[in-house]
Amino acid sequence: xxxxxxxxxxxxxxxxxxxxxxxxxxxxxxxxxxxxxxxxxxxxxxxxxxxxxxxxxxxxxxxxxxxxxxxxxxxxxxxxxxxxxxxxxxxxxxxxxxxxxxxxxxxxxxxxxxxxxxxxxxxxxxxxxxxxxxxxxxxxxxxxxxxxxxxxxxxxxxxxxxxxxxxxxxxxxxxxxxxxxxxxxxxxxxxxxxxxxxxxxxxxxxxxxxxxxxxxxxxxxxxxxxxxxxxxxxxxxxxxxxxxxxxxxxxxxxxxxxxxxxxxxxxxxxxxxxxxxxxxxxxxxxxxxxxxxxxxxxxxxxxxxxxxxxxxxxxxxxxxxxxxxxxxxxx
Length: 331
Ligand SMILES: [Fe+2]
Known about the structure:
It comes from Gordonia insulae. Helix content is 22%, strand content 31%. The protein contains eight helices and 17 strands. The strands form two sheets. A nine-stranded mixed beta sheet has the order 14-15-16-13-9-12-11-10-17. Strands 2-3-4-1-5-8-7-6 form an eight-stranded mixed beta sheet. The model has no long low-confidence stretch (mean pLDDT 93). The protein binds fe (ii) ion (FE2).
């Protein structure tokens, strides 16, 4: 009797993601971007090396944003926390068995935040880093009423194949779909936050936006006020989204990338939550009715420019990325 070979995913995903630690961005003028995020947005520079900058929020992560120079805007990397170096090594073995390319084998990370990790490539060429044992950083003094971000709340990724990409982030990396917005957006969680990644069906892969969590709705509003004092107005918001129930106010940074202040994201009870599919209506994307439609400027900035990342590496592993996965019905 013949048996089909066991899938390396038969025992579940390759790892258990604990949180989204940080995002790396490539921008043409990292000094201008650093000045914005440090002097206006509320992050603080924790380390620098020439024109590369690491900025932290007030939470426990060594840094949440890594800015480096490049010809055009691009998503450099998204880093997720796993619990132990052993889990990094175990993940590498399963990824290798799956035929998923590693940009970096498990080992010490030569990054300002230290740690032990690996880097893999997602189906559209994005670099995903899994890390453990990064440098511990005591949380800053309570921010009081200062309008400073606590952490990255979520990253929204434009994707050309939302079903396949959702399959990858759920089946391979173990995220769960909290909600769909029709078949246009998928909201993915790795912990109790409603989403840390959202996928948006689009014409090309790119970064849609990065959201920074403010401690409370009061801090959120103060943040908007603080930007106004620098002459910067929201390009969409303030408002509150239906999916995720979080507040939103969107801005563009000096590189033209979209950044968002948010707060009060829905907390998920893993045992009780039921994924639903939201209709895409103005009333549900702006439940307070305060934000109005997004400006053409912010829509264009959210679309971004095609970001090919390590697409060539993906093409070289097309057996896995374009052949095997059964993507229908991810929910
Ligand atoms: Fe957002």
